[in-house]
Design a protein that fits this description.
534 residues, alpha+beta, 6-stranded mixed beta sheet, 26 strands
Length: 534
């Protein structure tokens, strides 16, 4: 319980500013502007955490965050307690993330490592616990990866119980997965941040999640997918660094170090002013599987899903816009009014009022991302192809219920084919593209429940909330939006075991001690199915 109490304390939003050298480090990484580099320190960091990032064939990143000034390095080797290599010593100020890169590694190798650290002036380096990681596995290998979505830490005791989330993360740690993929709405900034939103409050949301994801993240690299509540979206951009999209884009990459195109990863090459490379969509190959993340939020001119509560966003003492405008001044400037129906008119209507546009043809991956996706799927010879996104079209409710619509399926809400007119130059709608190039599973979140569906040979997998104390009861999930498929309530996470012959998807349940019963066992497999290689 001591660890859990520490976690709960971290969610009391003791927030004031953002760490100076945190943003100085980010400036060195991606060219952040002077406005960000000059931010006032004031975030709350209660303990040292470390999370792995960007695993590759010959490298891995280790992102370290501590409450005090720090000098640190990594020592590593291929046997427990026997370290044959180490990184250079690096330095960071208190509350400033320190990104250490472990390089010159061998592919397909299990490494053990530990962080050595000290406060400046101390005579001795302390040794953190030993952890491990695995470099890229070749074709023919077996491995595990885990998936979660929609922890929603801002919804205390309604959809989020800290102790239950910790129990889910303990299950994730037991899986010893090669990596962990989060599908968004784990860093919600549009509600529940007490008062006027600032860059430092956004940073605090990302810092707080490290207390949970860090439970497994020191051995399991973390990949993030934007959700509708992260507010990393083009519609908010207004030509200044002082808006929520910029703050969210920077915090995401400062505290969790996502991949950029580098020869191992492919992805978004277009920088965003005041952020640099936003690292919102990317792909990599591991064993016999291709992994692809996609993101409509940074590429649509409108608010794709949940609009920002503009009365909580103040710049230079002035409210950015009236909440009735939906997206606010920045959204209006970018062309997004927000405010429409969340799903296509009449489709998955139950619980579907997300705040997206009335005309969902305005929601788009954009030409560059679509062409990258097409080429990535076409060129891959992987036996399994997995795609990860927050949701079909980024908004609405349901999965196959939405799959025929707009740029995903080519038809409008009346069932009329409009794709050729609305997306000239595109080969196929997204669903048909996935069918043509043999996608195995499309993983999505947003609806807070476990649902497995199928369409045209593709599994559409809705990923459950990992921390819901109400066992997925409506209105905290959207089960009524699903008209078919295998359905189970939250909470828990997915474990995917990949081998050359088979990929097995397990849904592992999480329960509070008072809810454990012979039918509801903590960490038990609630549902399982196999995916054959394509």
């Amino acid at each position: 319980m001591k660890k859990i109490r520490t976690i709960i304390v971290a969610f009391k939003w003791r927030i004031a500013g953002v760490a100076v050298l945190s943003l100085c480090l980010w400036a060195a990484l991606s060219g952040a502007p002077q406005e960000l580099r000059d931010a006032t320190a004031g975030t709350t960091v209660t303990e040292l955490t470390q999370v792995l990032s960007r695993p590759a064939d010959r490298s891995v990143g280790v992102n370290v965050l501590a409450p005090t000034d720090l000098e640190a390095y990594i020592e590593y080797g291929t046997a427990p307690g026997k370290y044959t290599g180490k990184t250079e010593v690096a330095r960071a100020k208190a509350k400033a993330p320190l990104q250490l890169e472990v390089t010159r590694l061998n592919p397909n190798t299990l490494y053990y490592y530990r962080l050595r650290h000290r406060e400046p002036g101390s005579a001795t380096y302390l040794a953190a616990d030993e952890y491990s990681f695995h470099t890229q596995r070749p074709a023919g290998s077996s491995f595990i990866f885990d998936v979660q979505a929609d922890s929603h830490p801002e919804r205390i005791n309604r959809m989020f119980m800290p102790e239950l989330y910790a129990r889910t993360m303990a299950n994730v740690k037991k899986d010893r997965a090669d990596f962990f993929i989060s599908l968004g709405d784990d860093f919600s900034i549009d509600r529940g941040i007490n008062g006027n939103i600032t860059a430092e409050k956004v940073s605090q949301v990302y810092i707080n999640q490290r207390q949970y994801m860090g439970m497994s993240g020191a051995s399991t690299p973390i990949f993030l997918v934007n959700g509708s509540h992260e507010q990393g979206g083009r519609y908010l951009l207004d030509g200044t660094p002082n808006n929520p999209a910029i703050w969210a884009g920077n915090a995401r990459n400062i505290y969790f170090s996502q991949p950029a195109p580098d020869g191992f990863y492919t992805g978004d090459k277009e920088p965003v002013e005041f952020v640099g490379l936003i690292r919102d969509y990317y792909a990599w190959t591991w064993g016999d599987a291709l992994f692809v993340t996609i993101d409509p939020y940074w590429h649509s001119k409108v608010a794709v899903g949940t609009t920002f509560l503009a009365d909580t966003w103040h710049t230079n003492g002035e409210a950015a816009a009236d909440t009735s405008k939906g997206a606010g001044k920045a959204g209006g400037k970018a062309g997004g009014k927000g405010g429409g129906k969340g799903a296509a008119d009449g489709a998955a209507a139950d619980g579907a009022n997300d705040g997206g546009p009335k005309d969902q043809w305005q929601i788009t991956l954009g030409d560059a991302q679509y062409e990258w996706l097409r080429q990535t799927l076409q060129q891959s010879k992987a036996k399994y192809k997995f795609i990860f996104s927050h949701h079909v079209l980024g908004t609405g409710r349901g999965a196959v219920e939405m799959a025929d619509l707009y740029e995903w399926g080519g038809r409008n809400n009346k069932g009329e084919w409009e794709f050729d007119k609305k997306r000239p130059g595109w080969e196929l709608p997204v669903h048909q593209l996935m069918v043509k190039y043999g996608v195995s599973v499309f993983f999505q979140g947003h609806d807070h429940i476990f649902v497995k569906q199928g369409k045209d040979g593709i599994v559409y997998q809705e990923v459950p909330n990992p921390a819901n104390p109400n066992n997925g009861q409506e209105p905290s999930d959207f089960r009524s939006s699903y008209k078919s498929g295998d359905m189970l309530p939250a909470s828990g996470h997915l474990r995917v075991s990949v081998s050359p012959q088979n990929a097995k998807v397990d849904y592992l349940w999480s329960w509070m001690p008072k809810d454990v019963s012979p039918e509801h066992q903590q960490g038990a497999v609630a549902f399982s199915y196999d995916v054959k290689p394509r």
